[in-house]
Amino acid sequence: MALLVQKFGGTSVGSIERIEAVAERVIQTRQLGHKVVVVLSAMSGETNRLLGLAKQIDEVPTPRELDVLLTAGEQVSIALLAMAINKRGFNAVSMTADQVTIRTDNAFNNANIISIDTDRLESQLEQGKIVIVAGFQGRDSHNNITTLGRGGSDTTAVAVAGALKADECQIFTDVDGVYTTDPRIVPSAARLPEIHFDHMQTMAACGAKVLQLQSVEYARMHKVPLRVLSSFEEGEGTLVNFETQHSPVMVGIALQRQQALIHIDVPLAELQQQVDLFGLQVWAVTNTAQSAQIVVANDDLARLRLVFDNKMRHISDVSTLSMVGDNVVTVAEAVVTTLSNTNIQVHHNKQMTDCVSLLINEADHQTAVEVIHRQFVVNQELLGNPSLLAVS
Amino acid sequence: MALLVQKFGGTSVGSIERIEAVAERVIQTRQLGHKVVVVLSAMSGETNRLLGLAKQIDEVPTPRELDVLLTAGEQVSIALLAMAINKRGFNAVSMTADQVTIRTDNAFNNANIISIDTDRLESQLEQGKIVIVAGFQGRDSHNNITTLGRGGSDTTAVAVAGALKADECQIFTDVDGVYTTDPRIVPSAARLPEIHFDHMQTMAACGAKVLQLQSVEYARMHKVPLRVLSSFEEGEGTLVNFETQHSPVMVGIALQRQQALIHIDVPLAELQQQVDLFGLQVWAVTNTAQSAQIVVANDDLARLRLVFDNKMRHISDVSTLSMVGDNVVTVAEAVVTTLSNTNIQVHHNKQMTDCVSLLINEADHQTAVEVIHRQFVVNQELLGNPSLLAVS
């Protein structure tokens, strides 16, 4: 008998039919004798609907109140799943973040979990109940409602699994595992049966959406075995762990789309201060004494405009493409040459231990990922001799 | 400088435009120097939307989980109003029931408020903030989410006003006061400038929807001055208090529609036990050793069917019409005669100190209310001599 945490995302609970299917799957696990804690996101579309209401009132809504608003979404899905399980004769109970006591810092919209009280969770599990926890939400030390940022339900699941010392944290999603790259962009992308925590963390940091960065970091730190599975079909999914049998030069390619490359006439230090205040992630690609060029998500432009509107110029649509693997730097030059041969311009590149990131025009993203995936991920056998690739 | 509690119902916050209008009105009050606590319902339609989702899963959803589900509605409206006020340069903060600490008993779906902690409310008010409290919701002693039943936001408002010893509790709604009867059914119904707590309580108990019974009882017990106002137009509304200058024989007529008169082959005592267990309100009109005839809301039929399905017979659509006034029993016979002359059958009647209730066919409700209102409320001068009315 194991203790499992099962997390279902928005698409998995996107309709009453889907919720009923999740109920069936959770009951299956329970019937095998396991203890089950379920962590849910809001029904798909709900978070965007609520955000849309807020933006009708204020383009940049009060961060505290935005969290009050958005957490209503998970409260709906946990109640509905509990009803569906109870209707089937099993005993389920929903719990919001404050009922579990999921304590976070006070960084509204992007909070970090500080602690999770397991007393009430454990007492419900001892009573044989299936416990359904609202993902994405927490409470700060003043009992204000906080959220963990988009995708934060993964973090909740991993943190709950860590606190309960669960045997596995299973992330059910609309894809059946972690892929070499986004299969919606590159249909030939392949599912990885396993991936090392190092690489998963870098992929997530560079925009792979299958798992949220904070959740991977948390799982790694607390050594929580993590598995990505499909909500819709049976399968083994992808196991994220500390030992992998096979580590190719390029494990996968992560893509961050809908970004803006901006030139701002403000010294980088001053800019960085403001960016930290907003809690934004930026890539500072160049800087001089008086100005800097940075890459930010389009969604974050409105905030920067609040402060720097008349100092921003040359805004262009870009994507960041990040290749991950222990020795991926050895093929960086070959990749740039390959793209150049395909008439794709690389504006900037950044090399880290196990990752090379390239800044390209948004319009080029599909071709670029396809070409690199074909040449450097699928043709892994070529990678023994990178020099061959430069001329291919 | 007064301390005011202002409650706005679902229609008043039914759209972004309405929420902006409420923001303006609350700010007006604040600008007059008053301290303001706002209590909100869910946006109109939201509670029914959520209930609809639940009923797709289970016709009789788990009561505990239904409360988790429904309270998401107020969480949305309080956050949006706080944003709208903040956007206008005033300082607002939203609070859920658990943040205020509104303690109730554990009667899910129909809980009673036990206590309200005023510490956090008062500290926010001291800081000059407009505090926006989620109506309708509470927490039991195990921190489970509870709701106060339909219209429960009124109760929250009155209870908060009582706990804070507010100068007035203002209930903003889609009508501009308490009327002699429902003006949507009888257009000539008149607004009462004031009404005695006794009569208001009886009107509410008998189905007048303008104020919820529990809230009137609570306001009366805690001597909270209560005022019903329109959200949409200026005006004095109706003041509910302990002294009224004028008390006609028939103050008003309350109507309960969509009810069922059922014959159940179960002794009344046994039936009553089950009804109490479900927390239903019924009118037991007849009973023998082996059976009883009761009136229940159509909405409650499903629950009774769970237990008594094969013992229920003769279900008919009825309405209850209740006339309120200190001496209204003196005209009871005249009313029945008048209805009889209009070919409206009164199945049963019940006389209490300040109220006479009549059971009529659902199809007759409009004519019956119109006739009685015209003869006994509008023509108050005739009431000095009730015998005149019997032959009119």
Automatic annotation (TrEMBL), chains A, B:
<comment type="pathway">
    <text>Amino-acid biosynthesis; L-threonine biosynthesis; L-threonine from L-aspartate: step 1/5.</text>
</comment>
<keyword id="KW-0067">ATP-binding</keyword>
<keyword id="KW-0418">Kinase</keyword>
<dbReference type="Pfam" id="PF00696">
    <property type="entry name" value="AA_kinase"/>
</dbReference>
<dbReference type="InterPro" id="IPR018042">
    <property type="entry name" value="Aspartate_kinase_CS"/>
</dbReference>
<dbReference type="InterPro" id="IPR005260">
    <property type="entry name" value="Asp_kin_monofn"/>
</dbReference>
<comment type="similarity">
    <text>Belongs to the aspartokinase family.</text>
</comment>
<keyword id="KW-0547">Nucleotide-binding</keyword>
<keyword id="KW-0457">Lysine biosynthesis</keyword>
<comment type="pathway">
    <text>Amino-acid biosynthesis; L-lysine biosynthesis via DAP pathway; (S)-tetrahydrodipicolinate from L-aspartate: step 1/4.</text>
</comment>
<dbReference type="InterPro" id="IPR001341">
    <property type="entry name" value="Asp_kinase"/>
</dbReference>
<keyword id="KW-0028">Amino-acid biosynthesis</keyword>
<keyword id="KW-0808">Transferase</keyword>
<dbReference type="InterPro" id="IPR041740">
    <property type="entry name" value="AKii-LysC-BS"/>
</dbReference>
<dbReference type="InterPro" id="IPR045865">
    <property type="entry name" value="ACT-like_dom_sf"/>
</dbReference>
<dbReference type="InterPro" id="IPR001048">
    <property type="entry name" value="Asp/Glu/Uridylate_kinase"/>
</dbReference>
<protein>
    <recommendedName>
        <fullName>Aspartokinase</fullName>
        <ecNumber>2.7.2.4</ecNumber>
    </recommendedName>
</protein>
<dbReference type="InterPro" id="IPR036393">
    <property type="entry name" value="AceGlu_kinase-like_sf"/>
</dbReference>
<dbReference type="GO" id="GO:0016301">
    <property type="term" value="F:kinase activity"/>
</dbReference>
<feature type="domain" description="Aspartate/glutamate/uridylate kinase">
    <location>
        <begin position="3"/>
        <end position="230"/>
    </location>
</feature>
